[in-house]
Design goal:
Elements lengths: L7 E8 L5 E2 L15 E8 L41 H7 L8 E6 L5 H19 L4 E5 L4 H10 L7 E5 L3 H11 L3 E5 L16 H18 L3 E5 L12 H5 L2 E6 L6 E9 L7 E7 L2 E4 L4 H4 L10 E8 L2 E13 L7 E4 L3 H14 L7 E7 L11 H13 L7 E3 L2 E2 L5 E2 L4 H10 L4 E5 L13 E5 L2 H8 L4
Parallel strand pairs: 4-8, 4-9, 5-6, 5-7, 7-8, 15-16, 17-20, 20-21
Antiparallel strand pairs: 1-2, 1-3, 9-10, 10-11, 11-12, 13-14, 14-16, 18-19
Helix pairs in contact: 8-9, 9-11
Keywords: ATP-binding, DNA damage, DNA repair, DNA-binding, Hydrolase, Metal-binding, Nucleotide-binding, Stress response, Zinc, Zinc-finger
Family: Belongs to the RecA family. RadA subfamily.
Pfam families: AAA_25, ChlI, Zn_ribbon_LapB
Length: 473
């Protein structure tokens, strides 16, 4: 009697951090080098795994629902971005959300992801009512509906067209979508949603992949934009399999220090727009507000002549951001002086101190040096070297920098001031904020266009920059 060969169960061990799989359990992932992240899951394969000479059968061809058409006859209106009502989010997304697009918003706990998306949901619901479109569906898997309601009252995000559901099961979520036909779907978060047809707990690699695939399919079939909240790992990467980032259309990173008000939204991946735009938000007790001009957070209110300060302009993507660098040089009785930084690159500050000691004889080997930014801003690009050096010398020699001065440029180990990118944009932003004198690298200065009310001082060496910034009368 002939026997029928059934499908064998195939066991694999998959890394929950990066998605790498191994036929046997290992303590460390060979791909991302994480320890204890391999989890076992079982899948079946047609014809049995390991059968010699057996190749899985490919899918049988079927008649497509829509025939292929010449590209000139395909309408592009369906892919037009629609504003969300939050200008800074629209800036990062490239004008708004595209129907059928799936956006993944990742960030550390407490950074304000849920607050931002609840504000987006309320504004989008109000806009959908005016246009006669469907409501906005907000599905929360981490909080109860009452908890989300309290937050909505606090940030004034209540609208009759905003529907709220607390679900953790994929089938129930899809049922809500089928019943209300929303114009926008928000899921907070994808790691809390699970499918009863898939093995494993919520947040596991198989569950995240299955839930993401189902939501992407619904988004494409119904032309519904979907915003997903994603958790991050302890290293700052998006939790779950790496395939999740490849499946979605847009990946945004929400950043910020929980002790500061500033929040930055960056597009890591964007199929519909640029990836070098940055959105700025102010997170306060009354909610989150977009900042079209965040300069007030990064500059001191009073620009008096105080030693140890120097303003600069950094570039966050294509966006110029003014930052004030503050330095303090204080004597110490300890044998090992301290080097404390906040908001700046510690290694670049150490290099600037070494260059000042070797090239300009500004010795800080017996003093404590503190370098910080104002308002929790981050100034880690090389173009901030010149402002850091000027602030340190100003603090060490007790010479205040004149008001209205801004400086940017990279400092090399020999003391030369190297060229930096985006000098014209930095100058324009500084002039808009009222600065009237700028110290810039000599290299590339001939291509600069004049800025009204701005005196540009090109320098080739750090000694020239110190002399221009700290005149000794």
């Amino acid at each position: 009697m002939a026997t029928t060969k059934t499908a064998k169960a195939h066991t694999a061990y998959v890394c929950t951090e990066c998605g790498w799989s191994s036929p046997k359990w290992l303590g460390q992932c060979r791909e991302c080098r994480a320890w204890g992240t391999l989890e076992e899951f079982v899948e079946s394969a047609p014809g049995g795994i390991g059968s010699p000479g057996r190749v899985p059968m490919s899918a049988a061809p079927i008649r497509p629902a829509v025939a292929a058409r010449p590209i000139a006859e395909v309408s592009a209106e369906e892919a037009r971005a629609r504003p969300t009502g939050v200008g800074e989010l629209d800036r990062v997304l490239g004008g708004g959300v595209v129907p059928g697009a799936v956006v993944l918003l990742a960030g550390e706990p407490g950074v304000g992801k849920s607050t931002l998306l609840l504000d987006v949901a309320a504004k989008a619901a109000a806009a959908s009512r005016e246009r006669g479109q469907g409501p906005v569906l907000y599905v929360t898997g981490e909080e109860s509906a009452s908890q989300v309601r309290l937050r909505a009252e606090r940030i004034d995000a209540i609208d009759p067209a905003l529907l709220l559901a607390a679900e953790t099961e994929l089938g129930a979520l899809l049922g809500h979508v089928q019943d209300v036909s929303p114009s926008l779907l928000i899921v907070d978060s994808i790691q809390t949603i699970a499918s009863a047809q898939v093995e494993g707990g919520a947040g596991g690699i198989t569950q995240v992949r299955a839930v993401a695939s189902a939501l992407i399919q619904v988004a494409k079939e119904r032309a519904i934009p979907v915003l997903l909240v994603g958790h991050v790992t302890k290293d700052g990467g998006i939790a779950g399999p790496r395939v999740l980032e490849h499946l979605v259309d847009v990946v945004c990173q929400f950043e910020g220090d929980r002790h500061a008000r500033l929040r930055l939204l960056r597009a890591v991946k964007n199929r519909y727009g640029p990836t070098d735009e940055v959105g700025c938000f102010d997170l306060g007790e009354r909610g989150i507000v977009g900042l079209a001009d965040p300069s007030g957070l990064f500059l001191s209110a009073a620009r008096s002549e105080v030693p140890g300060t120097c303003a600069t302009v950094t570039l966050e993507g294509r966006r110029p951001m003014p930052v004030e660098i503050q330095a303090l040089v204080a004597g110490t009785a300890a044998g090992s002086p301290r080097r404390t930084t906040s908001g700046v690159d510690h290694s670049r500050v150490a290099m600037a101190l070494a260059v000042l000691a070797a090239r300009l004889r500004v010795d800080t080997s017996t003093t404590d040096v503190y370098v910080s930014t104002v308002g929790g801003a981050r100034a880690v690009e090389p173009a901030t070297d010149l402002a850091v050096a000027i602030a340190v010398v100003s603090a060490a020699q007790n010479l205040p920098t004149p008001p209205g001065l801004v400086a940017f440029g990279e400092v090399g180990l020999t003391g030369e001031v190297r060229a930096t990118v985006g000098v014209q944009r930095r100058l324009a932003e500084a002039a808009r904020l009222g600065f009237d004198r700028a110290i810039v690298p000599l290299a590339g200065s001939k291509e600069l266009r004049g800025v009204d009310g701005m005196r540009v001082l090109p320098v080739a060496h750090l000694s020239e920059a110190i002399g221009a910034a700290l005149p000794r009368g």
